[in-house]
Amino acid sequence: MPKLMLAASGGGHVRQLLDLEPVWRDTDHVFVTEDTALGRSLAAKHPVRFVDHFALGQARLGRPAAMLAAAARNFRQSARIVAEEKPDVVISTGAGAVYWTALLAKRRGAKVVLIDSFARFAAPSKFARGLKPFADDVVVQSAALKERWPDAHCFDPLRILDRPPPPKQPILFATVGATLGFPRLMEAVLRLKESGQLPERVVLQIGDTPPPPHVPDGVELHESLSFDAVQALLQDAAFVVCHGGTGSLITALRAGCRTVAMPRRFALAEHYDDHQEEITAAFRARGLIEVALEADELGPCIERLRARPPVVATTDPSALIDFLRTRLTAWGRAG
User: Fold this and answer.
1) Beta-bridge mates of residue 137
2) What is the mean pLDDT of the chain?
3) Which partner from 13, 14, 270, 288 sits 20 to 30 angstroms from 102, CA to CA?
4) pTM (predicted TM-score)
């Protein structure tokens, strides 16, 4: 089998690669990702190389110099990693942090499989648009994207499960995600707890968000949590409040948590674009979550969830796994 390089930035992008474990677990493989809590948890069990975070959206948020500096560092790191690891095939779910990795590996002769993020329901990501001309195979995960790119392979993995959730404890787990701070979410949760509207114990992961000057009783604050710690929390937590990334949403729904998403918004300089609003609208339309676009909507969203049974949902990548196995076998024979 060819040597695999599994390239993804932090959060939901790398979680999608973990869902594809049957493809890579018995092969010579290496992950390329960002130095996040999830990335460090992964490095404890698998070969991992880290690259610096960068994204075109940094320029849109008024930080072009920081973006260019990070992109230059990332380029040097990616060139060294590709030269040392010598991959035969790169499988990438995006985004910007692994663009140079995929492109330089392609230049060296590797096959490249581009899997546009499950977060992209209606329009392809900038990462996918930039890498598509160089990819040997392109995979999208919604029918709308298949219409945009008819030559792509389409695998929609979302599945709603007809099973009860595990027994839950009176815990609300709030998380801002792996890479960016999110003061608005943190402050909204703390206000609800201070006002007495959240009787549950609150576990709050704040990432790079500056910590609050006062933490109400019943709130446990963490800058970061390991992947295993998050999984254990999700098994017990009755409620999850999270940003609008697919990784956070799917892991919460898979554990049967009543889930409220607060999407990051470009107009508030919380993200590089408004794709989280697109993601959360699609999940809400399926009846999976509540969405709080504004901070004062968070309390009513939680109350509506209290009045209805939780939903259990997951992603089923089995068709995509079969497709990738077929491709790797063919490339292995040809090589």
Assistant:
1) 113
2) 92
3) 270
4) 0.77
